[in-house]
Amino acid sequence: MGIEIDLLKNYPKTKRDLKQRADEKTEEVRSIARKFDKEFFDGERKYGYGGFKYMSRFWQPVIPTFIEHFNLNENSKLLDVGCAKGFMLFDIKEAIPNITLKGVDISTYAIENAKEEVKPFLQVANAKNLPFEDNSFDVVISINTIHNLEKDECAKALKEIERVSKGKSFITVDAYRNEEEKEAMYAWNLTAKTIMSVEEWKNFFKEVGYTGDYYWFVP
């Protein structure tokens, strides 16, 4: 298995209103959010992002960490699983103009409304059935995505990441280390269907044969 490492350490931290989120989070709201359609990205805040627009301050500070960790260069091939509108891929392309990039997302809305500069590299696809040949990418990255699947589907997604990568990958998933973090996670979570403790995730990775690097999202 890979290593536990926070490659998003330079991603800006935002203050989250857990109480408001918990109060607004009805089953109807969750159902709408899980469609990952316009409401989730650009609808009311209670359904998701409340307006998903490109801002350089988010991913630009993170890209140098990715480049250093994975030794990315113009000959690298990288896949983003759960790429949304392609904002991270755009910033990677800005840093390494000739790098080969691909992005997939389950949301047709996100792909159709992706950043124009990277839209040609993106396509609609499900993480549990990636439309690529074995060993297609030097690096596969998936941020806060595979936990949106049921546990058995989550296992399929991890195996797919293993299959299409040449051995290097990085994922982040919803997790908790203690009861306080668990309470915060369940108050915040809107779309995830698989939430486990850090130790449960590590055991799960071993069970399904995921060998990439990983870290946790805790609100």
From TrEMBL:
Pfam families hit by this protein: Methyltransf_31
Domain Methyltransferase: start-end pairs: 73-208
Signal peptide extent: none
Keyword list, A-Z: Methyltransferase, Transferase
UniProt cross-references to SUPFAM superfamilies, sorted A to Z: S-adenosyl-L-methionine-dependent methyltransferases (SSF53335)
InterPro entries: Methyltranfer_dom (IPR025714), SAM-dependent_MTases_sf (IPR029063)
GO biological process: methylation
Single annotated GO MF: methyltransferase activity
Record-given protein name: Methyltransferase type 11
Organism: Halarcobacter ebronensis
